[in-house]
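Quick one before lunch.
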Amino acid sequence: MKELEHPSDPDSAPSGVAVFNIQRCSIHDGPGIRTTVFIKGCPLRCDWCHNPESLDGAPEVAITEGKCVSCGACVEACPESDGVRPARGPGWDDETCRRCGACAEACPGEARELIGEPRAVADLVAEIERDRPFFEASGGGVTFSGGEPLCYPSFLTACLKLCREKRLHTAVDTSGFASKKVVSDIARLADVLLYDLKHMDSAAHERRTGVDNGRILDNLRTLSGQGAVIWIRFPLIPGFNDDSENLEAMASFVAALPNPHPIFVLPYHPTGVDKHRRLGRETTAAEFRSPSEDEVDAVVERLRAHGLDVYNGGAM
Ligand code: SF4
Ligand code: SF4
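Model of the iron/sulfur cluster complex:
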């Protein structure tokens, strides 16, 4: 089993983690209308990842080469420039990049963008709270997503406690790849966990995500036994996890959990391919395709045949 790796020291996290997006009015990340906070940093490396900007825990510069007007402002602004080019650019070693964002700030054509901004707990929750009217009208709240929010247990705990004080409904979107203590502690503080099941075969899981599924399945069984409110999320990826054997194994596993949990089938969308390019990363994401509506319906029906509560999409 792969050892847990954290993209940054969790104990340093209460002072802030890098948030790369705050998406308002989301209707696919838990009950009601939600504000989804995307946190950078993830111990998994899913080949189909549609949020590649979430993988690295630190802020980073994304580059759209087609927008560059060759003005040289980034070279001048970069404290690590060699006088010809800035530290970070397509196709060259960027180990010296300080991730300071000075080049992005100087860039007139928006060819450079700094992805990820350190956010502290109180400031982040104050921003979320602005959406309270939407939450109250719809039964919604905030969803902490990523990346993997469980990489930052101290930060996440502080956010969840503050949200609870303010009576904001909370969801945590997780791969489940964390220590048993962390998942159990967070499950006690969050109103609902959105828990991914990607593949039931451990070798296939490891081949495509970089980690086996032992800890993930074990944590899910434990949390279910503890009475945690869990929405299971199944990212449906044709050619990877839509075969009969996997669907049957998943249905049997979920049916045998100590408590019943709904399953949400999430059709894969290849939105991450261009983002990988902008971050200068190699990707195999283009190998995957979206399932057709008929394929999604067939999977939903097949899982329902096991007496499970199954939904097409991310909400009831
Ligand atoms: S983020 Fe900072 S160090 Fe990195 S290339 Fe831009 S200006 Fe240079
Ligand atoms: S500042 Fe922006 S537009 Fe100018 S050379 Fe650098 S990347 Fe290109």
